[in-house]
Amino acid sequence: MSRMFKLKSSDDESFEVEEVVAVQSLTIKHLIEDGCANNAIPLPNVTSNILAMVIEYCKKHVGSSEENKMVDEDLKTWDTEFMKTDQATLYDLILAANYLNIKNLLDLTCQTVADMIKGKTPEEIRKTFNIVNDFTPEEEAEVRRENQWAFE
């Protein structure tokens, strides 16, 4: 049986996870290697609901390595379903994956955002992400002139 580690979220909730799950986070792996994981590992930048999702992702991905890019279809399908969440949760997952240094989760979440943008006009992107266009018509014309290549 593998060692268990306690992870403590920013809202003081504890999660007990197996080492094989915990070390998918390079941040946690380094804490364990440095002997800093004897008690609960505090994760002040991750809330309990996001940490629960991160742990769910890591449990599902135990054994699938970055080198093994031939991920089975079931895992791809699971990832697709896992990413069907609201934007706020998606952004929190990106921040958590970055903070915890979980490359595969960071890649998946960022790709999801990239897919939300792909093929959209600036106006559609603004609508998707609730961004207000604060350019005056003159400023917008200047940006288009300076970056004409991007609008071709």
From TrEMBL:
Highest taxon in the source lineage: Eukaryota
Domain SKP1 component dimerisation: 103-150
A Pfam family recorded for this sequence: Skp1
Function: Involved in ubiquitination and subsequent proteasomal degradation of target proteins. Together with CUL1, RBX1 and a F-box protein, it forms a SCF E3 ubiquitin ligase complex. The functional specificity of this complex depends on the type of F-box protein. In the SCF complex, it serves as an adapter that links the F-box protein to CUL1.
Subunit structure: Part of a SCF (SKP1-cullin-F-box) protein ligase complex.
PANTHER family linked to this entry: SKP1 (PTHR11165)
This protein's name: SKP1-like protein
Organism listed in the record: Kingdonia uniflora
